[in-house]
Design brief:
elongated; alpha+beta; about 400 residues; 19 strands; five-stranded mixed sheet; about 20% strand
């Protein structure tokens, strides 16, 4: 439990206290912040972390063995009335706390505390605010070791992508029959050889399948790859370490010698939208201006809409990357949610605009890390980036 880091973030954000709460794993943010991830705690627990002073815990009497090494003081309860009495003491002198909830449910990643518990805490005269910004400071910023590991995973992921497209071309040139599923399994084998892990098999999609952003082939649902096909590969992986951070990349290719006009035109729109996002972030970062996740999405979406494809861009521009593929930091999103959280130093995220027509879909995806100040602080980690459709024959 990083008390000094949490209290520093509380001071930076001018917040009074963080009230952590969990019941049977419903709040992984609280578990991680408290250092309790992986512990089998079966009863409700609370931890009040003030901006100054030691943490104060409230736990069930049968759970003491799970809290023997936590910092701060511990109060105990058994029955519901005792819980109420002890909570009143825990909150004595406190006017406001932050908890894992998002007003109007805007950001589901943060909405972890149930409505009844929020009502109960407010019944003590406490103002409850969202911990969205605080959780990002505490959970989404990468350590130096995590960033170095992410860079390695990013380069290995790009290498696996290169190998996959080369394997497709070699198989087709040799006259062999291959499917999306064959390519997917080839990538997974590479991950295993590279000591990388993933939470889901990669996306390998041709033609109409690539118009489904989350399509993934299986042994029984797969399509043969042949000349004249448009191919999208989206792959993500990380090193075999609990603190390792994912890398995530998407590239597209055409099985032929000349890219069809419409396919090439759509790719150019997506590529330009991606590059506009990079330029927008770099300009704001160099000027030390705040960058809301939703503002980056607006930048990308406005351009794609201007080019006539707005209705075919059906997901957010990007997501936070962490030890989970979809981390708890700010997302580049003003479509699925309105994420007003700011992009902060030490966080990593994707930029991945896409256009999904009936015949095919196109997406280009890169990873970005924010480091230090100025233009050079915007680091692209999945390099090189794709600037033209790959040709496989």
């Amino acid at each position: 439990m990083q008390i000094s880091e949490i209290q520093s973030a509380l001071a930076t954000l001018e917040l009074d206290a963080w009230l952590l709460y969990d019941f049977r794993g419903i709040n992984p943010i609280a578990q991680n912040a408290a250092g309790l991830t992986g512990k089998n705690v079966t009863r409700r627990w609370f931890c009040l972390i003030p901006s100054q002073g030691e943490p104060r815990w409230l736990i069930h009497r049968i759970e003491t063995s799970n809290f023997t090494d936590v910092p701060g003081s511990i109060s105990l309860y058994a029955g519901w009335q005792e819980l109420k009495d002890e909570m009143s003491k825990l909150l004595d002198g406190i006017k406001s706390v932050v908890m894992e909830y998002s007003p109007d449910g805007e950001i589901p990643y943060i909405s972890r505390v149930d409505a009844g518990t929020l009502e109960w805490i407010r019944s003590f005269g406490i103002t409850v605010q969202s911990s969205g910004e605080l959780a990002q400071y505490v959970e989404a910023r990468l350590s130096d070791a995590q960033f170095e590991g992410h860079q390695k995973s990013a380069q290995l992921t790009i290498q696996a992508k290169d190998n996959a497209f080369k394997w497709i071309a070699d198989q087709l040139k040799a006259g062999n029959s291959i499917t999306e599923y064959n390519v997917q399994q080839h990538i997974l084998k590479q991950f295993d050889e590279m000591d990388l892990v993933t939470n889901h098999p990669p996306i390998v999609a041709v033609n109409t399948n690539s118009s489904d952003p989350h399509y993934a082939p299986t042994a029984t649902r797969t399509q043969q790859i042949k000349a004249g096909d448009c191919i999208l590969i989206d792959l993500w992986a990380k090193q075999k370490d609990a603190d390792a951070v994912f890398a995530d990349s998407t590239w597209v290719a055409y099985v032929g010698q000349t890219v069809p006009d419409q396919y090439g035109a759509v790719f150019e729109v997506v590529r330009e939208a991606r590059d506009r996002a990079i330029a927008f972030i770099r300009e704001k970062w160099a000027a030390k201006e705040p960058i809301q996740g939703c503002a980056v999405d607006d930048c990308v979406r406005e351009y794609i809409t201007k080019m006539g494809y707005g209705e075919y861009f059906i997901h957010r521009t990007g997501h936070n990357l962490g030890t989970e593929i979809h981390g708890n930091g700010a997302n580049l999103d003003n479509l699925e949610t309105r994420d007003t959280r700011e992009l902060i130093e030490g966080t990593c995220f994707t930029i991945e605009p896409g256009i999904y027509l009936n015949a095919f879909g196109v997406r280009t995806e890169i990873d970005v890390f924010l480091s230090g100040e100025g233009r050079d602080g915007v680091v692209l980690t999945t390099v090189p980036v794709q600037n033209q459709v790959l040709l496989l024959l």
